[in-house]
## 1
Amino acid sequence: MSRAPALLLLLIAPLVPLSQQRIDRLAGAFRPQEEVLYLWSGEHVKRLVPGFESLAADIYWLRTVQYFGGQRRFASDKRFELLRPLIDITTALDPRLEVAYRYGAIFLSEPPPLGAGRPEEGVLVLEKGVAALPDAWRLRQDLGFFHYLFLNDAQTASRILLEAAEVEGAAFWLRTLAADLLAKGGDREASRRMWRQMFEQAEEGIIRDNARSRLLILDSLDTADALARSVLEFERRHGRRPARLEELAAAGLWRGSLVDAANVPFGYDATRGRVLIQETSPMWRPE
Amino acid sequence: MGRGLSRALAVAANTFRETVRERVLYNLVFFAILMTLAGLLLGQLSIRQDEKILKDIGLAAMDLFGVLIAVFIGTGLVSKEIERRSLYPLLAKPLSRSEFFLGKFAGLGFTLLVNLSVMLLGLLLTLGATGRRPDVGLLTAVYPLFLGLLLVVAFAMLFSTLTSSTLAAVLTVGVVVVGRFADVIRGMREVLPGVPQQLTKALFAVVPNFANFDFKSQVAYGEAVSAGILAWVTLYAAAWTLIVLGLGLASFRSRDFQ
C-alpha cells in the first residue's frame, strides 16, 4: 500500500470509536432489544436451518436470555412481548431444552417489573415441556409449584406433584408436599418449601436470586405477622393500639428489628393494627 | 491392481497437498477463535447450557465447514484440471481415468478427515479448558458427519464431470439442501394428500437422506448412539457414495477431452 492511502486509513480509523462513543452518549451504551421478531413460528425457523436446529435453538435461547435481561434492566415499560414467542421458537427447535421451559416459565410468571406477570403463559410453557419431556420430574414439579405459587390452585398443584412423584428418580418429598397442599389448601410454609427447592436446584444466577428474594419476602411476611401479634398483645395489655411500632419495643413486647429483609421499615396502620411490607420496599409484592 | 492403487494414492496425496496449499485448512484458525470465544462467553450468557452449546457450536461448525470444503473444493477437483488443461499430460502418463478420479476423491476425503479431526481435538480441548469432561462420545457424531461429507464430495465430483464447476457447486448444494429436507418429502402426503404415494416413495428413494448422518443434537445431550445404527448408517453412506462415485466415474470415462 502506498503512503497516501495508508495515511488516509490511519486518519479515518479513529472516527469509528469516536462516532460509537457519540452514539452511545446520545442513545445509551446499553439499550433493550427492539420489540421485533421476524419469524414467529418455530416450525418455520426449523425449516430454514435443516441440520442445524439444535444450534439455532441455542441462539434463540441466548437471545431470550438477553432480551429478558435487557427488558428487565433497561426498558422503561417492560412489556416482555417477545418473551413467549422466543421461548416457543426455542423449544420448537429443540424440544429437549429443559432449561428453556423452566427458566422461560419463571421469566413469564414473575410479576412486573421482575418478569412479564403472565403466569398463565408460564404454566402453558411448562405444560408444553411436560408433554415433550414426560420423564423430566423437575418440569412436573415446577408445573405443580407454579399452579400453587402463581395461580393459587392448591388442588391442581397437589395432583401434578403426585404425578411428578411417580416419575422415576423423582424427589421423595414431592408426595408429602402434595399431601400437605391437599390437606391445608396451601399455606406460607408450603410456599417456603417450594421456593427453597427452587433455590437449591438452581445455580447462581437470575433464578437463584429470584428464589432467594422470594424466601426473604416470606421471612419478612412472617416478621410482619409476628409484629401484628405483638400489636394485639399490646392492645390487650394497655387497652389501646400502639401509635408507632417502636412502642412495642419500649413495652418489652418486641426485641427484634423493625425493618424487613431489605432494611426498609415495616409499615403500620395504627387504626386497624395492621403491619405491612411497604410498597417502596423490594420485598413488597402485590397480594 | 497393486500399481493402480499406488498410482491412485499418489494422486490422493497430491490432492491433499494441493488443498493444503490452497489454504483450505485456514478454516481451522476461524474454528479455534470461535471455540475460544464460545468457551469464554457462554458460561456467562447461557444459564447452565454452556457445555451443550459448546458442543452444538463445535459440531455445527464441523458440519458447515465440512460441507463448504466438500462442495467448493470437490467441484473443482476435476473441472479445474480440465479447465487448466493440466489433465491431459496426466492422462498421457500411465494413469487411468479411474485411478485419477478415485485418487482425487480419496485426497479430498483425507483433507476432510484431517480437518474434522483437528476440529474435534479443538472442541475436546475447549471442553477440558472450561472445566468440562472431554466427551469422547462426540466421535459418534463426527464419524457419521464424515460419511455424509464423503457423499457430498462424490456428488460434487459427479456434477463437475457433467458441467462447469460453478453450476456443479449449485447442483451439489441443491442436493445437500434437498437431502436435509428428505423427511419433508417422506411426509408430503400429510400436507398434500392428493400426491400419489408412489411418487413420494420414488422421490424419497432417489434423494440421499442427509438427516441419517446427523446425530449432533443427540450427542450434545450426552446420549449414546448405538453401534447398530452407526453400522447401518455406514452401509447407507457406502451404498450411496459408491453409486454416485460410480456414476461420476462413468461420466468422466465417457468424456471426450479432444
## 2
Amino acid sequence: MLELKDLDAGYGAFQALFGVSMRVAAGEAVAVIGANGAGKTTLLRAISGLIPARGGVLTMEGRDLRATPAHRIIETGIAHVPESRRLFPGLSIEDNMRMGAYLPAARAKFAERLDYVYALFPRLRERRLQLAGTLSGGEQQMCAIARALMSGPKLVLFDEPSMGLAPVVVAQVFDLVRRIRSEGYTVLIVEQNVAQVLKVVDRAYLLEVGKIKASGAAAELAASDEIRKAYMGL
Amino acid sequence: MDCHLDVFFLEALLNGVLLAGLLALLALGLNLVFGVIDVVWICYAELVMVGMYGIHHAYKGGAPFLVAMAIGIVLVAAAAALLHLLVIRPVLETPPINQLLVTGGVLFFLQAAATMAFGVEFRNLGISLGSYNVLDMSFSRSRILSFGVALLGMLALWLFLKRTYLGTAIRAIAQDRQIMPLMGVDSKKIYLVTSAIGGGLAGLAAGLMVLNYDIYPQIGLQFGPLIFMICVLGGLGNMIGGFLAAFVISQFIAVGSSCFHTEWGYAVAFLFFMIAIFFRPQGLFGGKS
C-alpha cells in the first residue's frame, strides 16, 4: 500500500531522514519506534507532504506522493493524526469533524460517517457542540482520531498518540489504536512508548538518527535484548 | 455645552445606533482579514473609496442602483483578491511591519490614482430618500436602510462562517494554519477567498456609503482611522467585539456631536479610545475569536 525507498527529508539545512526504505501492506499495523529526535515525526510529515521529501521514492498504491500537493495527499486515502492532536480548539467537536470531511467526496458521506465515529466514540456525540479545546487529553485524542476517520481513509498515520497524556490515559489511547485496527484500517504509528506500541502492531521499524536500524515482527523486536535495554528500560 | 435629556438627545442617540450599523459592517471586513490571515490592510478604507467610485460610475452610466451596487461589490472583491495575490502573498512570511508598510503604500497609491482619475471634487449619486419625522426627531431614510442592510450583511457572513464547509475552514485556518493540508484544504485558496469576502464586505459598505456621503479621493482618511479604532477597541480580529465597539464609538460621536460640536464628537471618541486602550490594550472584548 505505502512504499518508501531511500527517502531523504529534513528542514532547511538540517537533514532528518537518510535513505529510509519501508513498506506498509494493506491491513497491516506497523510501528516506527525510536528515541526523541530520531526523525519519526519527520517521517510522517514527509508522507503527508507537510515537508517535502528531498530524494527517494514515496508512493501510495502506486501514486507518486512526492508529485502530489500536500492538500491532495488525503485524497489518496491517507489520514494523519498529528503530534499533540492539533484539534481546532475554538471550534466545536462537530466543526472539527466537518474539517475532517472537507474533501468533496467525504462531504457527501458526512452524516453517515458522523454516525459511525459517534458510535465508535459515544462521548464525542454527548459533547458534539462543546469546543474541542475544552476536552480532556484522552477525549481530545478520540476527537483527533475521529476527525481523521471522517475522510474515509484506508491508511491512518498516528504521530506519538500517547505523548503528553497521563499513564492511565495512555493505556486507553493504545486501546483506541487497537480498535481502529480492528475496524479494518491499515495503521502506521510512530511512538516512543516502545513497550506498549509493540503490543498493538504486527511489525516495526527501528529508526535511529534518521536511519532504519532494524526491522521485524513486533514480538521479535520486543524480545531483542538490544531494544529492551535501549528503549524499554529493561 | 448644550446637553439635555430631551428629544434632541434621543435623536442623537438613535442616529448613533444607525451610524453604528455601517461602522460595524466596515469593521467586519477588516477584522475578518486580520483574524484569518493575520494581516492588517491599512488601505482598507481606500478599497471602500474605490468601490464608491465604481458604483458612482456605474450609476451615472445608466445602471440601476442595485446593479451598480452589485458591480461595486464585485469590483472591490476582485481588487481585494488582487491585493492579496500581488501585495500580501509575497510578504506573508515576513515581519508584520513589512505588511503594514506595503498596504500603507497601496493606500497612497489608491488615493493618488483616484485623484488623477477623478479629480478632487466631491461627487454624489444625487439620490435622496428623504427622512422620517417622528415627534420632533428626524432620521434619514438612507441611514435606516444602511443600518438594515449592514445587519443583514453581517448575518449573512455569520451564517456562511457557521454553516458551510468553506466558512468552517476559514474559522479553522485562523487557529492552525500548518495542519490545514491534512484536512485536504489548500490554505492559499482559503486566504484568497477570505480576502475576496473582506473586499466584498467593503464593497457592500461602499454601496451604503454612497447613499450617505459624498465621494472624494481622501474619504478614506475620514473613515480609515475610525474603522481601525473600532477594530482595536473591540480586539483586533474579534468580529463580535468589533461589532459591539462600533456601537460604543458611534455613540460617542453622535452624542458628542450633539452636545458639543461635530468635530468634538470625534475628539471625544478618540479620547475614550486612548483611555480604554491604556487600561485594556487587548481591546474591550479581548483578542481574536
